[in-house]
Amino acid sequence: MAQTTTDLAGKVILVTGASRGIGYAAGLEAARRGAHVVAVARTVGGLEELDDEIQDLGSSATLVPLDLRDGDAIDRLGAAIFERWGALDGLIANAGQLGVLSPLPHVKPEDFEKVMAVNVAANYRLLRSTDLLLRQSDAGRAVFVSSSAARSARPFWGLYAASKAAVDAMVKSYAGETAQTKVKVNVVYPGAVRTAMRAKAMPGEDPATLPTPADIAPRIVDLLSPQLQETGKLFDVPTGSFSEL
After folding, report:
1. 73-111 confidence digits (pLDDT tens)
2. What DSSP character marks residue 195?
3. Whole-structure pTM over 0.85, yes or no?
4. Which of 78, 85, 94 is nearest to 28 (CA)?
5. Who is most buried in 42, 50, 60, 87, counting CB within 10 A?
6. Can you tell me the distance from the alpha carbon of 44 to that of 81, in angstroms, rounded to the nearest whole number?
7. Sign (positive or negative) of CA dihedral 17, 18, 20, 21
8. Cβ pair 15, 29 in contact under 8 A
C-alpha cells in the first residue's frame, strides 16, 4: 500500500501511547501526511517533544495527557473531539502494557488487572467513545496495535497474550458490526521492533538488529488511508500482508 505523503491532509487522527516508541513514530508520520494529530499519553515530556517535531513539519497537534485506565476521561476526550471537529477520521490504538512474563499462577492480581485495564478495557472505552465520531467521517479508519503473542501464547506470556487475543476478538466483532458503513477497522502486528517494551521482554537481544519505530510507522499509518478497503483483517508488518483475524 504505497500512499502519497498527503493522503491524510486535513484529517483528524487520534494516537494513543504517543509519547514514545511506535505511537510517537506513527503520530509523526500521520502529521507528515498532513493530519492534525490528537496525541494521547501519560508522559507530558514525550508529548511535548512530539509536538515540537510535528510543528517543525508544518503540521499541528493537540496534546492530551491522559491515563487510559480512566474510562471517564476517554469519554470526555470523545466529547471534546466532537465539539471541536464533529468527527474523527482515524484512530491508532497503540498504547499497551507488557506486564510481567511469568507462569500464570504467579501473576499478581494487580498486575493482571493493570494489563487488562490498559490493553483491553481502555480499547473498549476508546471504541465506545469514538464509534459515532468515526461514522461521521467520510472515511473513518481505526487500527489496533496487537501482537502475534495473541496466537502463539507461549509459556510465561499468558497475561500479555490473553490481553492481545481479546483485542483481536473485539476488532473482529466490531468490524462485522460496521461492515455496512464507511468505517474500516483492522489489527496490526508490528513484529519485533526496537522499543522499550521489546527490550523489557527480550533483555538479551541486540536492539541494533531490529527495525526502529520510524521504520515501520509508514506501514501502520497506511491503514488509515481513505483508499483502504480492507476491514476486520490482520495486517502483519514484517510480511506486508493481510490475513483473516
Report:
1. 999 999 999 999 999 999 999 999 999 999 999 999 999
2. S
3. yes
4. 94
5. 50
6. 20
7. positive
8. no
Rounded-to-integer distance, Cα 84 and Cα 42, Å:
22
The HSE-up count of residue 238 (CA atoms within 13 Å, CB side) is: 9
Catalytic residue among 24, 160, 174, 189: 160
- For cell 498486575, the residue is 111
- Amino acid identity for residue 194 in this structure: R
Q: What is the spatial distance between Cα 6 and Cα 241, in angstroms, rounded to a whole number?
A: 23
Among the four given CATH numbers 3.80.30.30, 3.40.50.720, 3.40.50.300, 2.40.50.140, the one describing domain 12-244: 3.40.50.720
- Listed by start position, the domains of the chain span 12-244
Cell of 72: 471517564
Asked if 160 is an active-site residue, the reply is yes
**CA atoms of 239 and 190, how far apart (whole Å):** 10
